[in-house]
Amino acid sequence: xxxxxxxxxxxxxxxxxxxxxxxxxxxxxxxxxxxxxxxxxxxxxxxxxxxxxxxxxxxxxxxxxxxxxxxxxxxxxxxxxxxxxxxxxxxxxxxxxxxxxxxxxxxxxxxxxxxxxxxxxxxxxxxxxxxxxxxxxxxxxxxxxxxxxxxxxxxxxxxxxxxxxxxxxxxxxxxxxxxxxxxxxxxxxxxxxxxxxxxxxxxxxxxxxxxxxxxxxxxxxxxxxxxxxxxxxxxxxxxxxxxxxxxxxxxxxxxxxxxxxxxxxxxxxxxxxxxxxxxxxxxxxxxxxxxxxxxxxxxxxxxxxxxxxxxxxxxxxxxxxxxxxxxxxxxxxxxxxxxxxxxxxxxxxxxxxxxxxxxxxxxxxxxxxxxxxxxxxxxxxxxxxxxxx
Length: 389
Known about the structure:
The structure is a single chain. By secondary structure, the chain is an alpha/beta fold. α8 links the parallel β7 (236-238) and β8. It has helices at 47-61, 69-79, 88-108, 113-116, 146-158, 186-203, 219-229, 246-256, 291-304, 317-328, 345-348, 376-381, and strands spanning 3-10, 23-29, 34-39, 124-130, 163-166, 208-212, 236-238, 260-262, 281-282, 308-309, 336-339, 361-363, 383-387. It folds into two domains: 3-110 and 374-387, Enolase-like, N-terminal domain (Enolase-like, domain 1); 115-363, TIM Barrel (Alpha-Beta Barrel), CATH 3.20.20.
């Protein structure tokens, strides 16, 4: 089956388009089949950069056989020069195309993607409520006071979630970002503690709490936070430090003994090597780690070192669907990230099929491929680029 066309969709999110701009690709064959993938760079800065790289990479796969996915990935790595450096926009583009090709392969045999990954190990995938501090509802509302953290945590637990993730530090006051992050003041530490303590008091001892700091701390301030929150029974800490210097994360893990999770900012399997023996969880994003091809290697590396896997999932329904398929076949899978962005109607409705967790559990979809595509309304409002030669 030969690839004949690549279509790039820059999704339009209306009034929130300035902060949320998913980039989705559709790879089409000469027989008319379409595979879908996503560049995991829907937030922050870089979506347009990923689109530009997609425009350059797409002609490299026109005329290629979908079953040559390893050779296509190696071509990206060996012959584009910049793929040998872990750049986010480059790997976001590679990831989108790679996932779309895997989607096509699974569709070609009329099977869910998990069958190509060795078969389904999990019929249901437990999920956690990710980032309740953003309001955990249909509209974003950043919360800052402990009673609101408690209220939203209780809402998630009542919906069936047995685990909650929260960033207690980024919103210092209102929507002001953290200051003085190199060494936290007693007032800062107390503010963060009170927020998490309110969650723990509201949900009781049996609900897992995950802390995410969006890489906004240094090793010393992270040590302070881990020590302060220790009495609250934190399950693991995600992205305490920037991953640009992995030695700092290794040192933090060894000095504190805390369960650390990394991966949201890492691209390519090699970037996990300095960290893999010291972290508790890897969190690759299928939209920027290098796609399904790279994620297979990352998962195997983690399993060989006794490390769990929890994909980072913060994107359109394309990203969610691909993650569910991969996790279903992953032996060291721990938990699925149900990001609050999936509660937003504009994002949710951009998928043709509607997948939601029930009582905190995802049923693994059994449609062919990743089992998802863009909805007609998403396509209608997207900025579209077609590359066929």
